[in-house]
Specification:
two-stranded antiparallel sheet, 1 helix, Thrombin, subunit H, mainly beta, six-stranded antiparallel beta barrel, single chain
Length: 121
Amino acid sequence: MSLDMFGHIDDVFRSATITRNSKSSGSYVDGKWVEGVVTQTAHVANIQPLSMKEINQLEIGADRIKDYRKFYINDGSASEISEADTWTIPGIDGTFESFQVDNRVPFGRNYCKVIAARIDL
């Protein structure tokens, strides 16, 4: 039996469709650097703010940006998610950068939790 988030999400925390932006590594073509291609994929996720306890445990309380979110990916397609990804959330301005990823999908489990911080431009 595998760990699965499906059915554990209540009505208080509604799922939304968020966009994952992953960039492939660049390469040299004829002696010139060519940037990698950005791939966008949509995921259904439960979006929650971090609690003060979680912020203190991560030792990020002294950072200037205070907009950290955690996503629980609950669409089952999380095998490619990594800390190099950025995220776009509908209804929230800005882009979020992955800060910490707990991805158990490649190990036969259907569980992926991402902690992301809003990028301050």
